[in-house]
Automatic annotation (TrEMBL):
Belongs to the DapB family. GO terms for molecular function: 4-hydroxy-tetrahydrodipicolinate reductase. Its EC number is 1.17.1.8. The lineage of its organism: Bacteria, Pseudomonadati, Pseudomonadota, Alphaproteobacteria, Hyphomicrobiales. Its main location: cytoplasm. This is 4-hydroxy-tetrahydrodipicolinate reductase. NAD(+) binds at residues 7-12, 33, 97-99, 122-125.
Length: 269
């Protein structure tokens, strides 16, 4: 499968270039960065630390998509929404790992999927986190909102620009699904000052940033005299890259539509 990596000089882009080179059935068709990026004209393999691979980083996305089968995109929300439309026009696979979307972006991405793109989108592409989400959903269903409070805690490196993380929101959605409520109506993303006691049934989020932490998430279910913690720690970005490439290979030949990593991993149940 011929893949275009968008944001090829970024932390995830470089990891993807490396993992694609290690993956049977996948090849790097093009490596794209934004216009004006200092990475333009560099060799993508050199940036990824795997030695020269002959793929020169460019910024012409339309030329890159000619003859490609799919795009792997860990960039920024506005970029991913725009690329979804281009993927729809060409009926391509588009794997979206980008996080931090505003309300409304889901509708635009859904429209692109209806218009012809085969999109796999997830706030976390790792097997471990997607399994964790299944466990969180089960725990939230079993432990009712009057007896157990749910809090989602995350920590990431100091360069991360969005909060709560896409993974924290994915885990919050899983908890809300287990409780059969809408996360938007029950989430508490900020606490400061005299907040009053905790409201039963809410799902709280706490965000930590610092150093080089790749990504750590805990869902805490706190009851009277007992507490359950379900956690995941990412040690290396290759877990996200392997998941994203697996998603692209899975999506090739599938009907256009919007899919999740739970679909890819057979965890939709
Ligand atoms: N779903 C998942 O499993 C994971 C998701 N992520 C998410 O992926 C995203 C990227 O993370 P990360 O790699 O750490 O961030 P980086 O900032 O390291 O990488 C993003 C790259 O995209 C580039 N870029 C920006 N605009 C464009 C454009 N128009 N065309 C092509 N490239 C562009 C940036 O260039 P420049 O710096 O010059 O602007 C940068 O090189 C974030 O939203 C993050 O949360 C990260 C890890 C796992
Ligand atoms: O920005 C990151 O680094 C990560 N972003 C994703 C998120 O927002 O959850 C996934 C992972 O935790 C790393």
């Amino acid at each position: 499968m011929k893949l275009v990596v968008l944001g090829a000089a970024g932390r995830m882009g470089r990891t993807l270039v490396k993992v694609i080179a290690e993956t049977e059935g996948a090849s790097l068709a093009a490596a794209i960065e934004r216009e004006g990026s200092p990475a333009l004209q560099s060799d993508a393999g050199m940036l990824a630390g795997i030695g020269e691979n002959g793929v020169v980083v460019g910024s012409d996305i339309d030329a890159a998509l000619e003859g490609a089968d799919g795009i792997i995109d860990f960039t920024a929300p506005a970029v991913s929404v725009d690329i979804a439309k281009r993927a729809a026009e060409r009926r391509l696979v588009h794997v979206i790992g980008t996080t931090g979307f505003e309300v409304g972006a889901d509708a635009a991405i859904g429209a692109a999927a209806e218009a012809g793109a085969t999109i796999v989108k997830s706030g976390n592409m790792s097997l471990g986190v997607n399994l964790l989400a299944v466990l969180v959903e089960q725990a939230a269903r079993a432990l009712g909102p009057d007896a157990f409070d749910i809090e989602v805690l995350e920590m990431h490196h100091k360069h991360k620009v969005d909060a709560p993380s896409g993974t924290a929101l994915l885990l919050g959605e899983a908890a809300a699904k287990g409780r059969d409520v809408a996360l938007a109506d029950h989430s508490v993303k900020v606490r400061d000052g005299i907040t009053g006691p905790r409201e039963a049934g809410t799902i709280g989020f706490a965000t930590l940033r610092g150093g080089s932490v790749v990504g750590e998430h805990s869902v805490i279910l706190a009851g009277e005299g007992e507490r359950i913690e379900l956690s995941h720690a990412a040690g290396d970005r290759s877990i996200f890259a392997r998941g994203a490439i697996k998603a692209a290979l899975w999506a090739k030949g599938k009907p256009a539509g919007l899919y999740s990593m739970r679909d890819v991993l057979g965890l939709s149940g």
